[in-house]
C-alpha cells in the first residue's frame, strides 16, 4: 500500500514540475495545457469552433485573448485596445484567426488586405503593396511614360483595388488575373499625353487581345491611353491612340462628328465609328512620298462615311454610295457606310495594274480570281495560261462595254484579245461529271467531295445518288 502511495506522489511531483516549468515559458495570464481551447477570444465570430485541440499556452480561467494576442480579463474585452505591435509583415495571434478580423487589422496598419494562413497554426498574413515602375515607350521615340501598378500578394478584388489606387492618387484600378492575381492602377489619361511632341499616329503597340477591340481598349486604358484599336495586318496588333487633351469623354464613339474631330486634331485624315470604338484613318494621297499614277485626278476624290437608316447591309451601302458616284462601299459599324472611290481603291493597291493582271494566287479558282479583280476595280477576271494558273483582270475597254460588276467566267465571249506570248485555252463545258468514290475519298462528306472535285479542276462538287455515295463534280474542266 505504501509502495503505491509513494509511486503516485512521485508521478504527481514530476507532473507539477513539468507544468510549472511550462507555465514559466507562457505569457502573462497564460498557463500551459495539453488541450487548448483555440476559440477563447474576445471577439467570437458566432460560428462553431472547428479548430483542433492542441498543446500550448492558453488563457487562465475568466480570461480571453484579445486581438493583440494577449490574455486579459473577459470583462475588459470591450475596452481592450485595438492597437497592433510594430510587426510590419504579419500579425501572429496565438490560436485564432478569421478573414474578416484579419482584413480589418491589416487595413488599420496601412496594408491593402489580409488573410488567414493555416500552415502550422492560425496566422494573419497582411498583403504588402509593391509599387513598380514600368516604362512605356511610344512608337514615335518620345519620352517614356511611367505606369505604376500595385501588386497584391495573394488575391485581389476590384473594390479593394480601386480604393487602394485612388488613395495613391490614381484614376482607377482593376484586378488583372493572369498567372497570379494582382492590382493594376490606371494613371489618368492626360498624364500619358506627350504635349511637347507633334501629333502622333499611335502609342504603345502590343497584342493586347486583338482582334477583340474591347480587350484592346482595356489593354490601352491600363497603360494610361484613352482608347485602343486593332490595326492591320490581320488586325493582330493593338494600337493605343493618344487623343488631344479635352474635357469630353474619349471612351466609346458617341458620334461620327466628334470622332472625326478627334482624329483630325491628331493629324489623321478623318475618323469613323467602328462598333463602339473611334477609328482614325490616314489618306495615302497626303503622304509626302506618294506619287499618283499618270492620268489620275485626285483633287475631287475623297472617301466619305454616310449614315444608314436602321441597320447597314451590303445592298443598302452599295446603293447609297452608288447614288453619290462612288464605286465601292463597305459597312463600318452598325449604322454607317463608308464609300470608296475607284481611283482611291487603285491607290490602296499602289496602282500596280500589271501585278493584278498577272496574279497566279487565285487560279484555277475562277471565282476568287473574279472577286480579286472586282475588288481592284476591274470588271472581272479569267484564268489563262498553261493549266490556267494565271489570273488576268479585265478592264472595261477590253470587255467591250460589259457591266463592270459582272464576273467573267473562262470561255465566255467577251472579246478579250490575248496579250503577247500568252496562250488562251478554250476549255470544254460539260454540265457535270459523275464518279464513284470510296469512304476514304469523300461522300457522304460534302466538304471532302468538294475538295476532290477542286483537285480535278472543277468548280465544286456535291454528293448524290443512292445513299449519297456518288460525288458529282460540276463546272468547267481545265484541259
From TrEMBL:
Among SUPFAM superfamilies, the record links this protein to: Serine protease inhibitors
- The Knottins-like domain is annotated at 85-126, 150-189, 199-244, 245-284, 301-341, 432-476
Specify the superkingdom.
Eukaryota
Q: Which residues form the signal peptide?
A: 1-21
SMART domains, per this entry? Answer: Knot1
Instruction: Name it.
Output: Knottins-like domain-containing protein
Give Gene Ontology CC terms.
extracellular region
InterPro entries assigned: Knottins (IPR003614), Ser_inhib-like_sf (IPR036084), TIL_dom (IPR002919)
Q: Which UniProt keywords apply?
A: Secreted, Signal
**Localization per record:** Secreted
Question: One of this protein's GO BP terms?
Answer: defense response
List the lineage, top down.
Eukaryota, Metazoa, Ecdysozoa, Arthropoda, Chelicerata
Amino acid at each position: 500500500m505504501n509502495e503505491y502511495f509513494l509511486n503516485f506522489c512521485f508521478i504527481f511531483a514530476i507532473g507539477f514540475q513539468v507544468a510549472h516549468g511550462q507555465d514559466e515559458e507562457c505569457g502573462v495570464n497564460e498557463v500551459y495545457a495539453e488541450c487548448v481551447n483555440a476559440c477563447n477570444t474576445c471577439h467570437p465570430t458566432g460560428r462553431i469552433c472547428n479548430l483542433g485541440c492542441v498543446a500550448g499556452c492558453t488563457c487562465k480561467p475568466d480570461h480571453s485573448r484579445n486581438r493583440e494576442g494577449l490574455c486579459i480579463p473577459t470583462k475588459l474585452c470591450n475596452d481592450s485596445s485595438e492597437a497592433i505591435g510594430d510587426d510590419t509583415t504579419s500579425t501572429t495571434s496565438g490560436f485564432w484567426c478569421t478573414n474578416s478580423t484579419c482584413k480589418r487589422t491589416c487595413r488599420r496598419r496601412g496594408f491593402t488586405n489580409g488573410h488567414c494562413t493555416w500552415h502550422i497554426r492560425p496566422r494573419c498574413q497582411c498583403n504588402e503593396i509593391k509599387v513598380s515602375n514600368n516604362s512605356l515607350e511610344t512608337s514615335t521615340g518620345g519620352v517614356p511614360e511611367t505606369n505604376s501598378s500595385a501588386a497584391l500578394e495573394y488575391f485581389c478584388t476590384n473594390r479593394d483595388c480601386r480604393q487602394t489606387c485612388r488613395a495613391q492618387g490614381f484614376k482607377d484600378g482593376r484586378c488583372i488575373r493572369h498567372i497570379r492575381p494582382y492590382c493594376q492602377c490606371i494613371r489618368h489619361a492626360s498624364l500619358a499625353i506627350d504635349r511637347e511632341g507633334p501629333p502622333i499616329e499611335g502609342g504603345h503597340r502590343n497584342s493586347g487581345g486583338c482582334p477583340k477591340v474591347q480587350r484592346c481598349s482595356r489593354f490601352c486604358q491600363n497603360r494610361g491611353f484613352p482608347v485602343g484599336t486593332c490595326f492591320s495586318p490581320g488586325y493582330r496588333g493593338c494600337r493605343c491612340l493618344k487623343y488631344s487633351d479635352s474635357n469630353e469623354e474619349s471612351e466609346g464613339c458617341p458620334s461620327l462628328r466628334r470622332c472625326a474631330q478627334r482624329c483630325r486634331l491628331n493629324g489623321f485624315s478623318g475618323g469613323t465609328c467602328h462598333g463602339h470604338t473611334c477609328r482614325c484613318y490616314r489618306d495615302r494621297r497626303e503622304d509626302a512620298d506618294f506619287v499618283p499614277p499618270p492620268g489620275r485626278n485626285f483633287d475631287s476624290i475623297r472617301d466619305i462615311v454616310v449614315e444608314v437608316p436602321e441597320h447597314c447591309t451590303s445592298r443598302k451601302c452599295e446603293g447609297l454610295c452608288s447614288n453619290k458616284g462612288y464605286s465601292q462601299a463597305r459597312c463600318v459599324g452598325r449604322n454607317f457606310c463608308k464609300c470608296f472611290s475607284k481611283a482611291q481603291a487603285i491607290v490602296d493597291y499602289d496602282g500596280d495594274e500589271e501585278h493584278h493582271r498577272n496574279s497566279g494566287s487565285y487560279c484555277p479558282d475562277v471565282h476568287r480570281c473574279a472577286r480579286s479583280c472586282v475588288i481592284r476595280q476591274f470588271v472581272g477576271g479569267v484564268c489563262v495560261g498553261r493549266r490556267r494558273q494565271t489570273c488576268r483582270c479585265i478592264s472595261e475597254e477590253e470587255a467591250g462595254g460589259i457591266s463592270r460588276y459582272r464576273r467573267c467566267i473562262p470561255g465566255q465571249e467577251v472579246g478579250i484579245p490575248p496579250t503577247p506570248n500568252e496562250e488562251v485555252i478554250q476549255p470544254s463545258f460539260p454540265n457535270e461529271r459523275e464518279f464513284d468514290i470510296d469512304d476514304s475519298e469523300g461522300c457522304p462528306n460534302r466538304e471532302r467531295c468538294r475538295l476532290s472535285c477542286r483537285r480535278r479542276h472543277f468548280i465544286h462538287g456535291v454528293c448524290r445518288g443512292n445513299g449519297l455515295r456518288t460525288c458529282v463534280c460540276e463546272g468547267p474542266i481545265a484541259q
